[in-house]
UniProtKB/TrEMBL annotation:
Signal sequence interval, chain numbering: none
Transmembrane segments annotated in the record for this chain: none
Protein name, entry field: Pyridoxamine 5'-phosphate oxidase
Name of one Pfam family that matches: PNPOx_N
Domain Pyridoxamine 5'-phosphate oxidase N-terminal residue range list: 21-146
């Protein structure tokens, strides 16, 4: 059973019970977002990652969002989610009215050999691409927004295509070998288990 979302009003921000139409529209319109996770250890390293590539995140329902996790960099988020599940996602407006939306909750990486993987990926349509490692599903415990008055105006120009071009030249078998050969895929910088290896083939 999903626990109820906490609702608090105060200051210049608000919290919400669900990702309603307005919040959903804002989330899906942004060209990027950020993920924040941390290990349980007080000596561990907090991780903050930017996520781009339009269409690679979507709102599943009023309490859940999901995004595609691609290889090519470290697997800190996966490692932290496997250890403790805590995650915060943040979207902020770089144009238009100022706004910041956060989804605080628990996340689960759904890997290639999970029966849910294919159906989740299919929901992203053309955003699916080479080097896909997992789908991260986040269930909200707290949904909040705030003013974002200090976020600067930035102009969106275009998507970077380097990741898709680089990994598009590799077969899925070559990508699996790439993951196996990079220690930062197997473990976090704190030594926590990250991406389960060997990487299963995509069906």
């Amino acid at each position: 059973m999903i626990p109820p979302v906490r609702v608090i009003l105060g200051g210049m921000g608000k919290t919400y019970e669900r990702i309603d139409g307005r919040l959903r529209e804002f989330i899906e319109a942004q060209p990027m977002f950020f993920t924040a996770t941390a290990p349980l250890s007080a000596d561990g390293h907090v991780n903050l990652s930017p996520k781009g590539r339009r269409g690679t995140w979507r709102v599943l329902d009023e309490r859940r969002v999901a995004y595609l996790d691609f290889g090519g960099s470290h697997a800190e988020t996966i490692a932290h989610l496997r250890e403790n599940g805590r995650i915060t996602l943040m979207w902020c407006a770089f144009d238009g009215p100022p706004n910041i939306v956060r989804v605080h909750g628990t996340g689960e990486p759904v890997f290639r050999d999970d029966p849910r993987f294919a159906d989740l990926v299919a929901g992203f349509g053309d955003a699916d691409g080479p080097a896909l490692r997992a789908v991260v599903v986040v269930t909200a415990k707290l949904i909040s927004d705030t003013c974002g008055f200090a976020v600067p105006f930035l102009d969106y120009r275009a998507e970077r295509t380097l990741h898709a071009e680089y990994f598009g030249r590799k077969s899925d078998e070559q990508f699996a070998a790439y993951c196996a050969g990079k220690d930062h895929n197997a473990r976090s910088i704190d030594g926590l288990p990250a991406l389960p290896l060997p990487l299963p083939p995509r069906s």
